[in-house]
Design a protein that fits this description.
Length: about 300
């Protein structure tokens, strides 16, 4: 046998490095992606920027047909008027919205958390059918429930009071679905270990599951708070007096068929958006983690 031929056959093949894009091409691609994201961000932010700009315009400039991105002159009359007017207690509306949204979010967490855990971990007859029925209610248009909910609220003598906007909708089908998905993603071994240590079902739920569910609970709480904070139609039906209005319903009083105070509307919208932005900035880490974990297992 020819040794030269054997050595040629057994010699390792030369590994070629993977083809890479030139640095100039990578920089160009990165720049295009950044430009695309900047354009999308500008499209989403432009209404918010124009809202804030309009709130610092005079009454005449705010109602002008041609858009004006730089107010001339810059004035805070709109903020001064809505904060001091006796017939439009914006601060009271702000407080009502804060109380109703916080109470609504808390009730949803209290009702949805145990229901979702039972559907995710406990075995009982009809569990899957019950879950299907709960999810099916998500396809019911909310406007259909206006009249039944109003009749119930009226029988309870809650009309023109904050419980009328806090209690209805507290049994959230979306909350049950969302938390169930999160509970399914948790390792069952953790609960089994706690059961071996002598914990009962309630202790497992409160001491093991709930601490691990903080991201999902925070996410659901934020979503429920925002839904109640931005709700317009239902408060307009059940809150009748000026002192009990929430902020979205109260701001609607600044417009009529023949006159719209755009400066006051934009100033009120700015005030209404500040708590929402602060809430998301504080809770965004838990919101992202909760949404990511809830989609791991169906």
């Amino acid at each position: 046998m020819n040794p030269t031929t054997l050595s040629d056959r057994t010699a390792p093949e030369t590994v070629r490095p993977p083809a890479t894009r030139p640095p100039a091409a990578r920089r160009a691609g990165r720049s295009l992606r950044h430009l695309f994201l900047a354009v999308i961000a500008a499209l989403y932010l432009s209404p918010l920027v124009y809202m804030a700009v309009t709130s610092f315009k005079s009454r005449g400039a705010a109602g002008a047909t041609s858009p004006q991105w730089i107010p001339e002159p810059v004035t805070t009359d709109a903020y001064r008027e809505i904060l001091t007017a006796a017939d439009s207690p914006v601060l009271r509306w702000f407080l009502n919205s804060l109380l109703s949204a916080s109470g609504h979010a808390l009730l949803i967490l209290v009702t949805a958390t145990p229901a979702a855990y039972a559907l995710a971990r406990m075995r009982f007859r009809g569990r899957n059918l019950l879950f299907v029925v709960i999810v099916a209610t998500l396809f019911v248009p909310p406007v259909i429930l206006l009249v039944p909910n109003f009749l119930i609220v009226n029988e309870l003598a809650w009309v023109d009071s904050l419980p009328a906007v806090i209690v209805p909708g507290a049994a959230s089908a979306f909350g049950v679905f969302f938390l169930r998905q999160f509970f399914l993603s948790l390792p069952a071994e953790l609960e089994e270990a706690a059961e071996l240590d002598g914990c009962n079902r309630w202790q497992i739920f409160t001491r093991v599951v709930l601490p691990l569910a903080k991201p999902a609970l925070t996410t659901l709480g934020v979503l429920a708070f925002l839904g109640s904070w931005n709700d317009f139609l239902w408060p307009l039906y059940v809150l009748l007096s000026s002192d009990t209005l929430t902020l979205p319903a109260g701001l609607a009083t600044f417009q009529s068929a023949n006159n719209v105070r755009y400066d006051l509307l934009m100033a009120g919208a700015v005030l209404a958006s500040v708590p929402v932005m602060l809430l998301y900035l504080v809770a965004q880490r838990w919101v992202i983690a909760g949404i990511a974990r809830s989609g791991l297992k169906g």
